[in-house]
Amino acid sequence: MPSSFRRPPRFAVGCAVAALTAALSGPAWADPAPDYDALVARLSDTPLIAEAGALLDAAEARVRQAHVRPNPVLGLEAENAFGSGPFEGYKNAETSLNLSTDLELWGRRGARVDVARAEAATASRRSTLVAADAAGRLALYYAEAEAADRRFGLATEALTLTLADTRAALALVEEGREPLLRGIEGQTEAAAARARLDEAQAERDAAFARLTGFAMLVQPVTSIGDTLLDRMPTPVAAETSAAPAVLVAEAEREAADRRIAVERIRARPDVRASIGVRRFEAEDATALTFGLSVPLPLFDRNRGNVEAAQADFRAADARLRGVRQEAEADRVAARARLGSAASRVSATDTGVSSAEEAYRLSRIGAEAGRISQLELRSSRAALIAARNAALDARLARVRAEIDLARLDGRAPFGAAQ
Questions:
Q1: Are 122 and 63 in contact (CB under 8 A)?
Q2: Element (H, E) at 224
Q3: pLDDT tens for residues 288-337?
Q4: What letter does residue 44 receive in the DSSP assignment?
Q5: Which letter does DSSP use for residue 284 in this model?
Q6: Residue 1 lies inside a defined structural domain of this protein
Q7: Which CATH number covers residue 383?
Q8: Could you report the per-residue pLDDT of 342-353, keeping only the tens digit for each?
Q9: How many domains is the chain built from?
Q10: Spatial separation of the C-alpha atoms in residues 254 and 246, rounded to whole Å
């Protein structure tokens, strides 16, 4: 076979080797991410937790404000002054100084306080839900960054194996033991492996950026020091408390019920009392004044607001029933996925061991000429697929643990929030 037909594959493989060497000899990653447990402990610095905490502070401040009584009204009136005839000037004027206040009858203040407390309880439970969601998102971003880093390593190893097999195929082509087609196929596989490596590197950079942004880290993450993919999920008891979403729905229902009482009380007359002093300039005398004022409920009896509050309560009650059913179904599904993922991890690890042994034997057989290049490529593809399947299984286990932890209102993998 003329040498001019053998050089292109060998030259292409040499370029691929040079490209791989350049990729692996770049700047070293010097900023590993903090441990997952340390990042969970710092979740209070994230905007999500800070926002939930501020909303809770606002709700608690409204509770304190609800206890405050309304301010009294100080009024000053002058009558029969600066007129004509006997009322010329101010000598026959009558001046009144009075103080009036809302009596808050019918339990207005207590109902207002009850609503504020119910809303504060809702904000508190919602902050717990936000904390669980934030911990779940952190665990997911951490696991995805670790998985992307491992995929990059697998893609690098896959390219290394592909180049090694291609070099071996070219040697057989040189000896005339394999057709030229095998060298061309090796060149194509090396190019595809290089493209997959570039894609894996881009995915890794994106995953590192997501983790850096969510965790509010000063230095960009460039490597993963801790591991979540290999960490075993936290054992959970058979009987667990209600999901945070259910607790939030219960608090919203309670607040809606309290608002009905407020609107019903508002339908009753708002009685105001007043007391004051009146000065009679003509007689040079003073006298006390006092009175009550009550609006006549001829037109506005607050029926619309009462009906609206009742409708809001029915909506909150229906939402609570739906959330309870969904939470129970999601918890059963999450436990099933977690058990399935654990079995899948064990199965894929066995598959990786078998694929590694099969590929090792295939390499030996191919070098001895007892196994064809097609069989070697098939065993290499099976090995790469097995390793990626094992990584997918671990990532699925992490996601199942995240879903279950969110339903239990805790941080995944037993981290302390």
A1: no
A2: strand 223-224
A3: 988 988 888 888 888 999 999 999 999 999 999 999 999 999 989 999 99
A4: G
A5: T
A6: no
A7: 1.20.1600.10
A8: 899 999 999 999
A9: 1
A10: 12
